[in-house]
Specification:
Blueprint (H helix, E strand, L loop, with lengths): L2 E7 L4 H4 L13 H16 L6 E4 L3 H13 L7 E3 L16 H8 L1 H9 L11 H21 L3 E6 L1 H12 L16 E6 L5 E6 L2
Parallel strand pairs: 1-4, 2-3, 2-4
Antiparallel strand pairs: 1-5, 5-6
């Protein structure tokens, strides 16, 4: 028996729009972000998908994205589990800073290393590897069992927490994952085999 895992990065947030490092800070969605989340629900509805359970982070932008999707599917009351294990990467001292201001303060090369390396964290924050260290166990212990039981599972989360998860699902190296960009509000639909390997992947861009 195979199940379905749907990953959706939240819609555009107010700080995405302002080009700020967000991390664990909690800005809301923009009007465009709300629209992107609703459109994600429409795309999933067009595919005939219905969810058995949903997971999201403790941050507003992911929770509202999750709710828009479920509302669009007529599943507003679906059981939804929130956990900070699915939170965005913590950008530490960069959180709340404009990316251009950060470059002016630390230099373009250093900020690029913090943003795009796999295992170099910004001051007081997490690397992508650190983010994976909390996402992967949570997925294995709390999410995967539902998919392997043949259920259809929604995970509405963040660019880096989902990149860490996709790295594991797709078997990407630490170099390959750095090239992966996830668009806001674009569902990624996985069908998993009974042994947890990926049977198919469909990006509903």
């Amino acid at each position: 028996m195979s199940g379905t895992l749907v990953l959706v990065r939240h819609g555009q947030s107010e700080w995405n729009l302002k080009n700020l490092f967000t991390g664990w800070r909690d800005p809301d969605l923009t009007e465009q972000g709300h629209a992107e989340a609703k459109e994600a629900g429409e795309k999933l509805k067009a595919k005939g998908l219905k969810f058995d359970i949903a997971f999201t982070s403790v941050l507003t932008r992911a929770q509202k994205t999750c709710q828009h999707i479920l509302d669009g599917l007529g599943q507003s009351e679906l059981e939804t589990i929130r956990d900070q294990a699915l939170n965005e990467r913590d950008y530490g001292d960069l959180s709340g800073l404009n990316k251009d201001d950060a470059r002016a303060k630390w230099g373009e090369e250093q900020v690029h290393v913090w943003r795009r390396s796999y295992d170099v964290p910004p001051p007081g924050g997490e690397s992508l590897k650190d983010t994976g260290a909390r996402v992967w166990p949570y997925y294995i212990h709390d999410i995967q069992k539902h998919v392997l039981a043949g259920k259809t599972v929604l995970v509405a989360a963040h660019g880096n927490s989902l990149r860490a998860l996709i790295m594991a699902l797709d078997g990407l190296t630490s170099e390959e994952i750095l090239k992966l960009e996830l668009g806001t509000g674009i569902p990624v639909v996985y069908r998993l085999n009974a042994d947890s390997t990926v049977a198919s992947k469909d990006v509903l861009g």
